[in-house]
Specification:
The protein is α/β, with parallel strands linked by helices. It contains seven helices and seven strands. About 40% of the residues lie in helices and about 15% in strands. A seven-stranded parallel beta sheet has the order 3-2-1-4-5-6-7, with helices on both faces.
Length: about 250
């Protein structure tokens, strides 16, 4: 028996068509899961993932829905119910935010960031709770900014800290029903999110230099860790924050 296999599972991956979410969608499908890759914008990336899944014969279905809206949550709910033969699961990878100094942030920025990074996870758990059951696994994707101050990262880091706290509380309450909730905290990964920083090149170089591995964390490394948390191999892990950063946080 392969305890890392994901056969018999149907897993929703929010933000599942780009960056870390895309890597997780592919990794899960290659491990046998039926993946629902949620997205809102970026049809080109969604089409590319769909083409890749088709070429490899992977079970990945695309679901366009804004999880910050009631309509989007309803679409998610409708898509995830109705198949009792599969164990449902959730990976909340979708995230947003602004990269600005504290003095330039507004309440609009605050509400926008929190609505996707925290509130959407809460609402998804609420709406999916009736179909989650023994063996279901939930993963909230966080970041280093949840526990450390990062320049121009105030609201995103704050939202990730709240996300981790919410996930831990949910983990404690859902564990008695056999539903595991954990947190995945990647290190610096080369994705399009870096494009938001005007000093992108310098930041990437500095992040790589601070890692004991001397490089950025790779997308596949994050996806593999997500697979572990969802699989039976992690059956005893509840409310844990798994850091995948090449050791960067242990030397800072």
């Amino acid at each position: 028996m392969d305890i890392f296999a994901l056969s018999g599972r149907r897993i929703l991956v929010t933000g599942g068509t780009r960056g870390i979410g895309r890597a997780i969608s592919l990794r899960f499908a290659r491990a046998g899961a039926r993946v629902v890759a949620n997205y809102v914008r970026g049809r080109e990336a969604a089409d590319e993932l769909e083409s890749c899944a088709r070429d490899e014969g992977l079970d990945i279905s695309l679901l366009r829905a804004d999880v910050t809206s009631k309509k989007g949550i309803d679409i998610i709910h409708e898509a995830m119910i109705g198949d009792d033969t599969l164990i449902p699961g959730l990976v909340h990878c979708a995230a947003t935010g602004v990269h600005r100094p504290f003095a330039e942030l507004t309440l609009r920025h605050f509400d926008w960031t929190m609505s996707l990074n925290v509130r959407a996870f809460f609402e998804l758990l609420q709406v999916l709770r009736p179909i989650l059951r023994k063996g279901s696994a939930v993963v909230a994707v966080s970041s280093e900014g949840a526990s450390r101050a990062v320049p121009d990262y105030t609201l995103i880091g704050t939202s990730k800290g709240a996300l981790e706290s919410l996930a831990r509380h949910a983990a404690a309450e859902l564990a008695p029903d056999g539903i595991r909730v954990n947190i995945l905290s990647p290190g610096s990964v080369l994705t399009e999110a870096w494009d938001a920083f005007p000093d992108k090149g310098q930041r990437i170089e500095a992040a790589a230099a601070r890692s004991p591995l001397g490089r950025l964390t790779e997308l596949e490394e994050v996806a593999q860790a997500a697979q572990f948390l969802v699989s039976d191999a992690a059956s005893g892990i509840v409310g844990h924050t798994l850091v995948v950063d090449g050791g960067k946080r242990i030397v800072e």
